[in-house]
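Predict structure. Chain length: 526.
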Amino acid sequence: MVSSTQTFLYGEEELSCNIALSIATGSVRGKLSDTARKRVRSSQLVVENIVEKGEAVYGINTGFGPLCSTNISKEETRVLQTNILKSHSVGVGKPIKSELAKLMLILKIHALARGYSGIAEETLDRILWHIENDVIPIVPSQGSVGASGDLAPLAHLFLPLIGFGQVYYEGTSIKTGELFRITGLKPLELGPKEGLALINGTQFNTAHAIKVLDKFHNCLTHADIIGAMMVEGLQGSIKPFYSELHGLRPFKGNIHVAERVKLLLKGSEIMENHIDCERVQDPYSLRCIPQVHGASRNTWLHLKELVQIELNAVTDNPIIINEELTISGGNFHGQPLAMALDYACLAASELGNISDRRIYLALEGNSPGVPKLLMEDTGINSGYMILQYTTAALASENKGLCFPSSADSIPTSMGQEDHVSMGSIGARKALRVLGNLEKILAIELLTATQAFEYRKPLKSGILLDEVHKEVRKKVAFAKKDRVFSDDIEQGIELVKNQTIIKRIKEVCKKEHLSLETTYSEEFENY
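Prediction complete.
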């Protein structure tokens, strides 16, 4: 846990997604403790002694990859480390967002500060300078195959240490040479193994996984709230959310979603109004919300558990245990997260899939009191019909993105690296799917709010009633056609900014209510 002074000790304390994000936003400060510095110096000394003895150790005084059998002289070991950053900087494509690159720096310094990498203390201090001054290297998005570490993106991340590459400085992209001129910094001279320690690791993959968890969590929470709104608007049954049902199939995610939706619907006049109606059962998109949303919740939980391990792991190569033991292993291989990120990609897509089905259901006009296309005067007006075209397109795009990247492997490094994870591709893809999901949920939010209007003068429960009011501050009830893309953009901002989630929390605090469930701690903390 972070101390009360909001300081995190790299290499010493347990890093979490929330702490990493807080360091990236500046609300928590990361620092190197004396203990970590001592371990770092000790590890560097081991590497220097290996060089002095002349014993062949991979990456310290040998070439890399297929050149591992090529011995490097003591005099050339420093040149080798600079050359590896240059030669591996082969990334292409649009740069990743600066927040992701900053997360990469945070994750890397935490791993190096564990004291198993032979890195120099001065190098860590320079990385720390970049983080604290928000001078973030520019990193291309493509080029990593997710094994032997995220080589290309990490090489670009650390080019500025030796005077090359570009950085974001005060909101502008500038070359590192210009940064040095402005700040008076000088390029570092990397010692033995330092270059390899910098570019070996899973920090590109893991930084993306942190953002996947963050965005996915937001979407899961919105999906439950909006799903409850749709159950109410279409006067679905409350019984599929009873604990008596889910106790017979006790998946954590299912129970959490069922309890959450039931609490959101508590006190709803709309739900009470049809408690004795003749409808036997609802379509699956309403009735199976706990099972479908719950399965995606379980996927999120699985990814969270794996990311927590990876955040505090040492993933470069070779690992310096002590002077007698250095291990050239495979901790840099991205497979553990690659497969889980593909799983998360599928789970996010499914949330959008069922959301689109509920939107379609709302347009059919089969729920008493709710007009077809969610508008009374249709014919001259198309109502909400075409909004579902957009969610259908987005849902289809997401389905096409669900092919698992980790199912592919193309050998690299002249066969030395003959199995790779492609985790970086899956990670970027998962974020793209989540971006589409935010848009789908925004449109469902608009349609659920529109359906609710036809239930007046009946009132919703206190929580969902406040959600409706919050939406209406941005998007008015639609009596006739208008440019709905404007409404959609407002809906997307509501989802991204967590406006309705924040409002629910405010009401809960004011009214002394709780949305805590049996598994809240597991699903709300990351």
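Summary: The CA atoms of residues 126 and 215 lie 30 Å apart.
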